[in-house]
Design a protein that fits this description.
two-stranded parallel sheet; 400 residues; mainly beta
Length: 400
């Protein structure tokens, strides 16, 4: 991504305890999180695309500094073979922390047909803005530094509004919605479909909705007690009501295309060899997305109007916004992904594992690596199960 805006380094260290209770387990998780989006350069055209700098930023000065956030998130849940439920909080210490949680039920209609239904409120983790929220203090500084010119051009009321806005805070977006899926599997081949609806909201961010769906077919080319090779065809479709992909005040900082479609061929090889289990999967395909034009300030008509007015002032001419909206975009290209995970049983009660992945789905290039240690208070005897169940962040959206 772009430093200070869409770029994100996300380091998380979940510590999870699972305690047997009834037919399932109580799951308690604490997750320290550190986010770093870098620092935007002093180029006016870059600064114009963050916060309200285009309205109130000092030319060539980044007054927002490093884009970082850190905190510790907490959650508690309960899991059985068919039910999962949890409630928690995005990291305490984030500028915008939210209550999150969800519930999921997995059932069967016949021995070959299964279904799942889920509802959830999850953090949108695309960027520091959407995940933790951010701030911009440039607007008040600018207004006070250019008081005479702004009072003359905008009038006392509009000028005072710029000063009173002070430090702007926005972000911390959550996805709120439900998902249903239906699958068929005869042991050698299968098919599945899914659909979801989501409502997005955040602090001083325009609300949004999305409809998503997908499906696919697969077949196991080879399978026995210790390994399985599967290949298939998959498609995913998405439609968001509004494009809020950007980082000015009121935008959400998350990928929200009005049209998205991907068609890919996934391949997976998983198995075990003694105490070692593994899962390697990848996909290749083509993706297309289209995004509508989007106002710089979708929640603030005064700022929108000020762009045109301030553009005529000599003191703001270095800024260029190409109008009052981000332009519409459209892109078609190759989509790829690769993921590998493995786990080794060091002792009857001790396991170590790790995973790594890369991909370019949606509009991002993403790289991930993880390691973990799991200790069981009872000895785990017999053959290890596969594929390995890796420890992941609890802050994943329902569609993942």
């Amino acid at each position: 991504g772009e430093d200070g805006l869409s770029n994100l380094t996300d380091i998380e260290a979940p510590v999870q305890g699972r305690i047997a209770a009834g037919n399932g387990h109580i799951v308690v998780t604490a997750t320290p999180v550190t986010l770093d989006a870098g620092t935007a350069g002093n180029d006016p055209n870059t600064l114009a695309r963050f916060g309200a700098s285009v309205v109130g930023g000092l030319t060539g000065q980044n007054l927002s500094g490093d884009q970082t956030a850190s905190g510790v998130g907490l959650s508690v849940g309960y899991e059985t073979d068919s039910i999962k439920a949890d409630v928690g909080r995005t990291p305490f210490g984030f500028r915008e922390a939210n209550w999150v949680g969800g519930a999921e039920y997995n059932g069967g209609i016949t021995d070959k047909v299964s279904y799942s239904i889920a509802v959830a409120r999850r953090a949108v983790t695309d960027s520091l803005l959407s995940y933790a929220g951010t701030r911009d203090s440039s607007i008040s500084t600018y207004a006070q530094s250019n008081a005479a010119a702004l009072r003359a051009q905008l009038g006392d009321a509009t000028y005072q509004n710029l000063v009173n806005n002070g430090t702007l805070t926005w972000g911390g977006v959550t996805s709120n919605g439900g998902r249903a899926s239906l699958g068929w599997d005869d042991g050698m081949s299968g098919a599945y479909v899914n659909a979801s609806y989501e409502y997005f909201e955040g602090q001083n961010v325009q609300s949004n909705t999305a409809v998503k769906g997908g499906g696919g077919v697969y077949t196991r080319l080879f399978t026995d007690a210790n390994q399985t090779l599967t290949v298939g065809v998959n498609t995913t479709l998405m439609h968001y009501d509004k494009n809020l992909s950007y980082f000015t005040y009121g935008q959400g900082g998350y990928f929200s295309p009005q049209q998205y479609v991907i068609l890919n061929i996934p391949v997976e090889y998983k198995g075990r060899n003694g105490a070692f289990t593994y899962d390697v999967k990848g996909s290749i395909g083509v993706q297309h997305y289209r995004q509508d034009a989007s106002n710089y300030f979708p929640t603030n008509s005064g700022f929108q109007s000020a762009i045109a007015t301030l553009a005529a002032l000599p003191i703001t001419t270095p800024y260029s916004t190409n109008g009052v909206a981000y332009p519409a975009t459209s892109k078609t290209g190759v989509a790829y992904s690769f993921n590998a995970s493995a786990e080794y049983q060091l002792a009857p009660q001790l396991f170590v594992g790790g995973s790594a992945s890369l991909g370019n789905a949606y509009q991002y290039r993403e790289y991930m690596a993880a390691v973990y240690v799991r200790y069981s208070f009872t000895k785990q005897l017999g053959a290890v199960t596969y594929p390995p169940t890796t420890l992941t962040s609890p802050y994943l959206p329902v569609t993942n």
